[in-house]
Write a structure and sequence with these properties.
149 residues, 2 helices, 10 strands, globular, Immunoglobulin-like, alpha+beta, six-stranded antiparallel beta sheet
């Protein structure tokens, strides 16, 4: 049941947070990192409550899902550590504090909250280290965030 809820959360984040042309995944050496960033207001109140996420017009959520390919076409969640920052186009940075997804089984799911100003574009620069990986995987992307309509 928890896996189904996590899958739905990831699907909701991916659908709400990215334009169709974006490819929110990094693959390297048998490891895959899916990522999604969105306003916390885009979560349903039930989902926010379930995962202990505070909703606000200026709060964002970044979700990482880390997987390891054990055989061609087969992957499994893998615990990981992540660090990084979100930087405005003017260079103002905030450090992201990642932790296991509240209420999840912690294997492979990490979240960080961040602040943004409506219409602001943030550049994310992350280092994700899957458990047992010889090195961290770089994840870099930028995204514009909108306020309430």
């Amino acid at each position: 049941m928890r896996a189904a809820v996590r899958t739905l959360l990831l699907a909701a984040l991916l659908a709400a947070g990215f334009p169709a042309a974006a490819d929110p995944v990094v693959r390297d050496g048998g490891y895959t990192v899916h990522y999604a960033a969105m306003s916390t207001r885009d979560l349903s109140p039930e989902m926010a409550r379930r995962y202990g996420i505070r909703q606000a017009a200026n709060r964002g959520l970044l979700l990482l899902n880390v997987r390891h390919e054990s055989a061609p076409g087969t992957s499994a969640p893998l615990a990981a550590r992540a660090e990084g920052s979100a930087r405005t186009l003017l260079g103002e940075a905030q450090t992201l504090a990642f932790h296991a997804l509240p209420g999840g089984d912690a294997a492979g799911d990490l979240v960080a909250e961040f602040a943004f100003t409506p219409l602001e574009t943030l550049r994310f620069d992350l280092q994700v280290r899957p458990q047992g990986a010889p090195r961290a995987l770089p994840v870099q992307f930028q995204q514009q965030f909108f306020g309430d309509d």
